[in-house]
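Subject: Sanity check before I submit

Could someone independently write out the C-alpha cells for this chain? I want to compare against mine line by line before I put it in a report. The sequence has 189 residues.
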Amino acid sequence: MIELIAIAWVYGHTRFLEDLYMMLGFKVNYYWVAMWKFVAPVIIVLILIASGIQFSPSGYGDFVFPTWVQGVGWGLVSIPIVLLLGTMLIQLIRYGGFRNASRPQKDWGPALPENRTGRYADYLEVVYESKKEDIQKNGVIEMDKNEPNIVEQMKKRRESAQYNKGYEMDEKPVAEQNGHTVQSEDDKL
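---
Independent answer below. Compare away.
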C-alpha cells in the first residue's frame, strides 16, 4: 500500500511511466496507471478493514496461544516497520530535514551511461565518436565536409533527450566518464 502511494502519488505516475519506457523500450498502457492509483489501493484498504474486523487471537485448533506468544508474534511483525522508520529518522537527521533527504544524489539513476537519457542525461558529457581513423599529430580528428554539423546534432540530441522524444542521430554518441569513453555492447561489435 505504501509503495503504491509512493510511486503513483508522490513520485508521480508520469515520471514512473517515463522510467518504465526507458527500461522496457515500450510504453505501458494507462490501464496500469488506473490500477496503481485507484483500484489497487481501494482493494488493499478493503482487505485491511476486513482483516481487522475478522481478527481473532492466533491458535492451533481449539488451543489459543498465550498473550505473551501473541506479543512475540506482533513484535516479529513490527521489526521491519521499526527498521524502516529508524532508517528514515537517521536519514532525516543526516541530511537535515525531509526536503534534503528526499532529493536524489547526482549519481542516482540508470547505472549504464548509455541508458542515461531524458532527465538523467544532465550529468553526462556527450562526446562525438567519429568512424574516421585519421588523427593528426595534434590529436584533432579531421572531419569530412560531407559529415553533418556535429555540434548541432549534439544540441538537438540533448534537447530531445530532455523531453524523451526518441530523436535518433546518424552517429551514436558515447558517454565519457572520468576521461574514459564508454561504449555500449552493440557499438563494440
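---
OP: Matches mine. For the report I'm noting this point. Confidence is low (pLDDT under 50) at residues 124-132, 163-174.
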